[in-house]
Every structure is written in C-alpha cells, then in structure tokens.
Amino acid sequence: MQILTSFCAVVACLVIGGRAFLNGHDLSSTGYMETQQGALWYDTNGKQQTLETILGSGGMNSVRLRLWTADEYGLQYTIGLAQRFSKAGYSIYLDMHLSDTWADPTHQAVPSGWDASSIANLSKKLRSYVSTTLQAFTAKGVKITILALGNEVTGGILFPLGQISNNNFSGFATLWAAARAGVRDAVATGTANPQVIIHIDNGWKQATVTWFFKSLFATGKVSTSDVDAFGFSFYPFFSSDATISALTTSLTSIANNYKKPIYVAETDWPTACSGVTLSASYPINAQGQREWTAAVIAVLKGLPGGLGAGVFYWEPAYVTTPSLGSPCQSALLFSVSWYESKAYAKALSSVELYI
Ligand SMILES: *[C@@H]1O[C@H](CO)[C@@H](O)[C@H](O)[C@H]1NC(C)=O
Ligand SMILES: *[C@@H]1O[C@H](CO)[C@@H](O)[C@H](O)[C@H]1NC(C)=O
C-alpha cells in the first residue's frame, strides 16, 4: 500500500476508497478499425504505435467495451479485445447491451431467440445469459472490473416487458434483479466479483436521475445493496442544458443520497461541429476536448465523500464513424487520412486527455 501511495504521488494518481480513479476510453470498435479498415495509429510525434500505447501514454488506465448478444460486438470479438487490453494492464469495464444491437433509452430490443413470452421466462434466460457470459470471460483469463447490466437503461431494458412506462418500474426491476442474480451465480462458480453498475443517460438532468433511482428502489425488487456504483452518460451536444454546473448538482445529489461511487460512463467533445448549440463554450478542437474532459473530472473529484470514481471517453478512435451518433461531425481524438481504403489515424494533442 505504501509503495502504491508513493507511486501514485509520483504519477499524481488519485486513490479513492482504495480504488484508483479510472481514466478510461471506450475502445469497442478497435478490432474492426484494424481488421476491416487497416487502421494504423500514430502518436502526436508521428510514430506508429498500438492504440493502447498511445492512449496509455495519455493517462488511460481502463477500457470500456460493449457486448451485444449477436455480432458484431459479440462474445468472441469482445473477449478478444478484453484479453488484449487486460494483458496490456488496463482494467475492463464491460458494457452489456442485453440486445443484438445498439441499446439506448429508446431502443432495447429483446435478443433474437430469447423467450419473451412471460417475464418469468425472460428473467430466467437473462439470468443464465449473464452468468454464462461472465464465466466465458473468466475462462479466457479476463477479469471484469466494472460491469454494467444494460446500456443507458433510463427507459428500461428488454422492451416491452422491461420497459418503464407510466412510472411503472415493475418489469424493469424484475429483469434487472434477474441479471444481478446472474452475476451472483457466476461469482459462485469462481468469477471475480465485478463492481455492478446501472448506467443511464443525461447524468446532468437531476430530476430524471433522482426519479429513476428513487422509483427503482421503491419497487423493493432491487435494493441499494444490489448496485455497487452508478454510471451516467454526459454529452454536450444533445441539450444546451447539459452544463457542467447541472452535472455537478445532479451527481452531488446522487452521491449524497446513495453514497456509492459514480462514473461518467460516456462523454466526448467535438473537434468539428456546425449548426449545433453546445452546452459549454470550450473551443471546438483538441484543446476544447481537454478542457471539457478536465471539467468533467473536476466535477467527479469534487463530489462529496470522494465518490467520483472515473470517466470514460466514448470511442476516441472510431475512425469510420467520427460523428459517433452525435449531431456533430467529429469527436475523435485522432485526425484520419484515408489512403487506398486504409485509415491512417494521427493522434491529436487531446490523446493526452488524462495527464
Ligand atoms: C415459458 O417456458 C416454459 C418452459 O420452457 C414453457 O413451457 C412456457 O410455455 C413458456 N411460456 C410461458 C408464457 O410461460
Ligand atoms: C406495472 O406493470 C406490471 C407488468 O409489468 C403489472 O403487473 C402491474 O400491475 C403494473 N402496476 C401498476 C401499478 O400499474
């Protein structure tokens, strides 16, 4: 511990409640960028390196990966990436979408082939899926440090049975509890206990965030002890109300209410963005990416009880999709040149986001 403390003093790492603050990136698309686009990564000096070396030099210590119940972010692909990044020394945040495709507040499709004829049957399938999936990572030598059961579950999971409607959290709570039980099943067979989180969007929106967790725990089906930490998406381009100050208010109230670690599970800032009102006035370039992320980190580090636990920049190297589902044109941390259908990705100064 003393060695850890002095090491941390040297590299200015912050240990909260025995855990290092996580400076993460979501690198889910890396495999496809490399195998299908032939992506080559260059550091700010123009030297070719692995992606993890470049981002690791920029202070990354953790990697977030999404998992779908089908291709293309399926089990084998995601285990492969998790092995690669964990062998390189990065802790793994596994983001289970519980769907064959993208899951977000309005899309939570039941995986094909899952029996959704009743909540009991769907719960049973979900529980065994979570358990066998975690065991598959364990069998391949990957330890999951953070596990999100569902991605941006503000509207529920596994629609329609797990959809929250008219303030009715019953179906969602039943299903989420089943997923949580699946984690316990895996742990009982020897999987290391992950930190289990619930991840919702719009972390800045205090009323929604408060309503969500209050309603969930009021069902009595999920207790606060089932949830180890909270994760929130926080983007600057979906609402001009998504300010740093709104985030501070919202996350402070969650910290005070539940006294559990809090992550900003997804964020980014654009280098190209026209026709969109952003929620902060940082420049639309690499410097702005650093300033926005630094502001988010400052919010987390200022939370009561030292509960700010980490931040994950979303897909900084998704070179085929620089707009990242946002209304802006790019939020990558790389500038990309294409030559003969191959991506040459050169790091912006913002790859040093975390140092
Ligand atoms: C649920 O699963 C059982 C066992 O597989 C099956 O007999 C039943 O028809 C399914 N559907 C419902 C609505 O219970
Ligand atoms: C909430 O939804 C469940 C089905 O998921 C239903 O059984 C229950 O009656 C609903 N509760 C209320 C108060 O409407």
TrEMBL record:
<feature type="signal peptide">
    <location>
        <begin position="1"/>
        <end position="20"/>
    </location>
</feature>
<dbReference type="GO" id="GO:0045490">
    <property type="term" value="P:pectin catabolic process"/>
</dbReference>
<dbReference type="GO" id="GO:0031218">
    <property type="term" value="F:arabinogalactan endo-1,4-beta-galactosidase activity"/>
</dbReference>
<dbReference type="InterPro" id="IPR017853">
    <property type="entry name" value="GH"/>
</dbReference>
<protein>
    <recommendedName>
        <fullName>Arabinogalactan endo-beta-1,4-galactanase</fullName>
        <ecNumber>3.2.1.89</ecNumber>
    </recommendedName>
</protein>
<dbReference type="InterPro" id="IPR011683">
    <property type="entry name" value="Glyco_hydro_53"/>
</dbReference>
<dbReference type="Pfam" id="PF07745">
    <property type="entry name" value="Glyco_hydro_53"/>
</dbReference>
<keyword id="KW-0732">Signal</keyword>
<comment type="similarity">
    <text>Belongs to the glycosyl hydrolase 53 family.</text>
</comment>
<dbReference type="GO" id="GO:0015926">
    <property type="term" value="F:glucosidase activity"/>
</dbReference>
<keyword id="KW-0378">Hydrolase</keyword>
<keyword id="KW-0326">Glycosidase</keyword>
